Amino acid sequence: MADRTGSGPPLGIRVADERDVVALAQLRRAWLEERAGRPVEDPGFEAAFEQWWRVELPRRTFWLAEVGTPRSGFTAIGSINVVEIVHMPRPGTRGGRIGHVGNAFVLAAFADRGVPAALLSAALEHARERRYRRLLLAPTSGSAAFYRRAGFASAGEQLLMLDPSTLPAPPPP
What are the N-acetyltransferase domain coordinates in residue numbering (predicted)? Predict the structure, then answer.
């Protein structure tokens, strides 16, 4: 998908692949640093990200937003991914699939240029093609209105969470 970011360089959205691991890791680092307001030192982060990427790739689709041209080169400016969850079938019903949108991020300089909408559009098309029953996400307070405008609605209070580290230790054997 090719688009424009207003008067800037051409915008492209594409499914990320092995060549993009470094760019995706850089975007993930930028996400944290924008929120922290400072550089975050972690010399082993890129290696840890690459290991995570390899584990997640079979069930996760990543999209990369980039600006540039083949002649000038491309710069990664945002990404989004969708985890596919396949439900177990039960008698009388076959399992279906849902998608969970995660890790959406666009560099602040491009956030108001249609890049978030272009990335989400790619994820929505993927959901249609994969025939997901639902597409879920856990928006930040700052992004909730964006997703509502795109058609997402509240899923209610049905999601519960437990941090296993808060459980008491089991009795000794």
Answer: 11-173
Residue 172 is assigned to a structural domain of this protein = no
Contact 124, 61 (CB under 8 A): no
* CATH code: domain of residue 75: 3.40.630.30
Residue 51 placed within a domain: yes
CA atoms within 13 A on the CB side of 151: 6
Strands across the sheet containing 134-136 = 2-4, 10-15, 60-69, 73-86, 97-106, 134-136
The pLDDT tens digits for 112-144 are 999 999 999 999 999 999 999 999 999 988 899
Per the CB < 8 A criterion, the answer to whether 127 and 135 are in contact is yes
Asked if residue 173 belongs to a domain, the reply is no
CB 99 within 8 A of CB 83: yes
- pTM of the predicted model as reported, rounded to 2 decimal places: 0.85
Which helix (H) or strand (E) segment holds residue 18: the answer is: none
Cβ neighbours of residue 26 closer than 8 Å, sequence gap 6 or more? 76
* Backbone conformation region of residue 101, classed left if phi is above 0, alpha if psi is from -120 to 50, else beta: beta
In sequence order, the 6+-apart residues with CB closer than 8 A to the CB of 55 are none
**pLDDT tens per residue across span 77-119:** 999 999 999 999 889 887 789 999 999 999 999 999 999 999 9
